[in-house]
Every structure is written in structure tokens, then in C-alpha cells.
Amino acid sequence: KVGVMLTIVAFACVSLVIFILKYVFGSSGPNPFEKDCREPLKEKVYDKKEKNKILKQGFVASKVPDNLDAVIIGSGVGGLGLAVLLAKVGKKVLVLEQHSRAGGCCHTFTEKGFEFDVGIHYIGGLMDHTPFRCMLDQMTNGQLQWEKLENLFDHVVLGPPENRRSYPIYSGSARYSEELKKRFPGEEKAIDEYLKVEVKRSMLPSVCAVCLCPLPLAKFLIHTGLVKHLSYFYKMAPRSLRDVVNGLTENKDLRAVFSYIFGTYGTPCCILVSG
Hints:
Blueprint: H1 2-24, H2 48-55, E1 70-73, H3 77-88, E2 93-96, E3 108-111, E4 114-117, H4 131-139, E5 145-148, E6 154-158, E7 165-169, H5 173-183, H6 188-201, H7 205-212, H8 215-224, H9 232-236, H10 241-246, H11 252-259, E8 270-273
Parallel strand pairs: 1-2
Antiparallel strand pairs: 3-4, 5-8, 6-7
């Protein structure tokens, strides 16, 4: 324990030195969040032709401007988000996409009169004044609207018709836990431990700190295994979802409920209203 504490103290000292050198004696560069970019809501666009003028711009070499600062391959959430941040600090950015439209997992398609989500269709952590919500509002000039999902918002259905089991899923950690415990009596300990893992998984400041370390120091922390003592994230990263949930409970249905939302993983509360 003493060795671990000394390692943590040493890491904190190194991080502090890096911070002082970079942000006190060095130039911090432009800040895309320096000004409040939120604007009054504009009228939604429903006409497909008008929307496709933005979402389906075919590549023409003559349209590529000179003196580009950055070229981003892929117009998914990450690519478009990075392009917005660079553009907000005055950079000239080109985003290239091999698909017929931009958006990645955020775009939709229509089939036989029904609109389908390609990927992301609900997301959590979007309460007013939370860091994530403020970041998205700033990046989108406040033009994305969010609708709170009803509670309950999902069902996990398991088994064949003759032995069908349905487990309701509620948003919010407290309600989520409470309802699971009602459906799985005797599994309270496993449910509480699962939620602890979820909470620790989202605590990533130390992960960002390692990314800011000098490369030799970061490699040293990783290769020696010391990085596992700095963040729960690094301790859990080598383990699969199956390993984690199987270690919590022997109940196969509860394992399925813990795992079903893998991909969006968490307890979502909002749905994106696009237009």
C-alpha cells in the first residue's frame, strides 16, 4: 500500500509540473468554449431536399479550398465534433465521408414510411447545466433539442414464447436499481456492485492525465502495470463484459439484463429530437 501511495503521489507531482509548464509558462492556444455560442432555436427543416443539400454533398475536387488546416476522414460523431471545435477557433477544415450522407451513427433512414435510427437513439447525462450538456449546446449553438424519455423506457425480453420473461428498464440510477431488485430478489449485492462498476467506469480524469504525460512516462506506467493503480478504468480495461457480469452473479437472466445495453451502456434518459 505504501508503494502504491508513493506512486500516486509521484504521478500527481509530475502532472502538476506538466500543468505548470504547459499552462503557466506556455501558450494555451485558442479555446472553442471561450464564448457562449448558443442561439435562439431556428425553425426545423423537414424538407428532404433541403436537408440533403447539407447531408449529401458529393465530393468535387474543385470545391476543396486552398490552405486547409485539417482534413478529417469520417463524418461520424467524433469526426464532426472535432471539425466543429476546429472551425470554432478559426481553422479551415475539410470532412470527407465515403457513405452517401454525413452523420455516422447519428443519421436515420426511411423504409416503407418508417424512420429508423442507424445507431444512437437515446443517451444519458443530459440534464441542464451538466458538463456534457453544456459541451453539446456549445458545439451545436444550442440547436439540438432533447426530449426526456418516459420511465420505464425499455424492456429486456428473454426466452421462447412458452417461457417468456420481460424485465422493465427505468432511467436514473436509484430507480434502475430499485426496480431490478424487485425483479431479482436475493441479487441485491450483485446489483449494487454492478452499479459501483458503472460509476467508477465513468470517472476518467486520471485517464486524461495519463494522455497528457510525456510519452516515455506514459509507456513506463503502462508497461510496469502501475497505471492500474492510478485509475479503475485501466484495471477493468483488459476484462470483457462477460467476465465482469459473470463474476457478479450466477443468475443468467440478470447477466443478460446487465449486458443487454452493451454499446450504449449506461442508463439513458433522453432521446435526440432531430430536424
